[in-house]
Amino acid sequence: MSEKKKGKQKVVKEESDEEDDEEYRWWEAENAKGDGTVKWNTLEHNGVYFPPEYVPHNVKMKYDGKEVHLEPEAEEVATFYAAALNTEHVENPTFNENFFRDFKATLDNSDKNPPIEDFKKCDFTPILDHLEREKEKRKAMSKEEKQKLKEEKLQLEEKYGYCYLDGRKQKVGNFRIEPPSLFRGRGKHPKTGSLKLRVQPEQVTINIGKAAKVPEPPAGHSWNKVIHDNTVTWLATWKENVNENIKYVFLAANSTLKGQSDFKKFEKARELKDIVAKIRHDYNKDMTNKVTAIRQRATAMYFIDRLALRAGNEKKEGEEADTVGCCSLRFEHIRLEAGNTVHFDFLGKDSIRYQNTVTVDGQVFKNLKLFQRHKESDKDQLFDRVNTQELNKHLSSYMDGLTAKVFRTYNASHTFQEQLKNTPVSGSVNEKILAYNRANREVAILCNHQRTVSKTFDNQMNRIEDKIRALKYQKMRLKKTMLTLDPKLKKKRPELDEPESDLGEEWCEEYEKHLEEKEKDRLRKKFEKDNEKRKSEGKGPLSESELNEQLEEAEEKTKQLSKERKTGKMEVKKSQTVEKVEAQIEKVNERIKVVNLTKVEKEENKTTALGTSKINYIDPRISAAWCYKHDVPIDKIFNKSLRDKFKWAMEVDKNWKF
């Protein structure tokens, strides 16, 4: 059996029950990349799902200490803010200012609303209390109520979640219109807290096949437009009000069209590797060109290539966050120091701050100093004679469809493949996965895929530490058991008598008490369950004294654990032997090693978002080939949804190269 087939088996075996017998393997068909124009011939779907209308709860907020009645529209907006009270957003002055501006505008829509002018006098906690009560009600729902909700959700998904594209059933991505809410944004977005209005059918354009039945809009409404454009892949579109972004409903990640799009993207990046040397040669040559525009373009291309910067697009002043890319950098975003050192500091896409200090080639540094001579202000453009459109037009002269964005995909995939060479060939699966995630992290750092440290990070790390201590506690008891079985080992193997690190007397006592409480909780639940069963069988309940007796045994067990720990004399079972106990110690050591790797990985990745680069910038075939080469189960790297999304990439063999 070939390695390719072996790799394929690892994926298909698990999911064969869920797949259609007639699965369309588009990547094996002719013209797999698509022709770049017509995307489909027939398209049928049921449109989009609108969120239900707001139902007032009539819980009054307070203003200046007094309860005030709000009309439904204003009450809904107040409820949005109340839901955010226990988050960091309400600590952001910009969030509060934008919310209050839009809240007051909503209040002005009805004369029945009270006059509210001072944000500091507003108290939304009564509404928050109501939301918390509703949350508890949902938690306390019966099994039947939860099942009913599940069935309603499945009915929605069956109606809106699938379409027929060229006669084949395909999954739709997010078919739900976003409900109204307060806009959050990422980073220091200037519009955070603004009200996202309810989208109406009159704003939505439907794209569907000419012969297909047009889905009905909600009662009393009509669609903005109905079109039949088979050169695009979206099913519906509308414009949201906060940033005036165009929103689309596309097919799901595992659909034919999305798969073809991903395939084309990564193949284009692979093609770049054949000409990247020439491009680099040319832009290095153009660094000294007498025409300033060409010299600027060459310098910008250097940054896009070497630092994986986004090209950047022009922004409407005051309309969006002050985010920039390479072509829109201003002099205030860089600082030059001796030794060809450049400090970058600016807000990139999604208002994520980019801070980096790099040593650049000498000519690049000279060019930056040259450009600075002509500036009038730090607000001036660094590359005032270059824009993204012109840069991409120049790149397309090397290869059809080549843009600055392709460089990010190329450099991400190339860097990842090179970093994977550090995988320990003879390491355990967990050690190999750590090497994989380290390679992934290098790419995430290159692409500036950051995340803030989770508020629960310290608690998570403490739980991992406790897990390690618990394993060491087991190991300590096993070592004492070995010495009890064979006291002569104390001289032959003195390490068995050495104390385990991090296991202080106080921690051990707390852990033993924790084990006791855990056992008591188990016994109580079992007692209740047994009595429920006896009741259903028409039998009388078990005696409380029986439970109390078991609980006392749990307490005695704790005393026994403490005594054994202090004396070193263990209660040995007849079946235990030195050999068996030693084998148990080896298993515990392996588990400690695995948990330690988890700890290292979590610490290393606490400020880095690995998912974005893995899903969007790294060719998934690199990961698949790596798994087959190093005998790492593919599901350790890609979850089921990603294996579905990248099904076309799972076909490679272990020797595939980007």
Automatic annotation (TrEMBL):
Coiled-coil ranges per UniProt: 128-159
Active site: Y617
Biased composition (Acidic residues): 546-555
Residues in DNA topoisomerase I eukaryotic-type domain copies: 182-631
The entry's keywords: Coiled coil, DNA-binding, Isomerase, Nucleus, Topoisomerase
GO cellular component terms listed in the entry, alphabetical order: chromosome; nucleolus
Transmembrane segments: none
Database matches in InterPro entries: DNA_brk_join_enz (IPR011010), DNA_topo_DNA_db_N_dom1 (IPR013034), DNA_topo_DNA_db_N_dom2 (IPR013030), TopoI (IPR001631), TopoI_C_dom (IPR025834), TopoI_cat_a-hlx-sub_euk (IPR014711), TopoI_cat_a/b-sub_euk (IPR014727), TopoI_cat_euk (IPR013500)
Protein name: DNA topoisomerase I
Species this protein is from: Rhizophagus irregularis
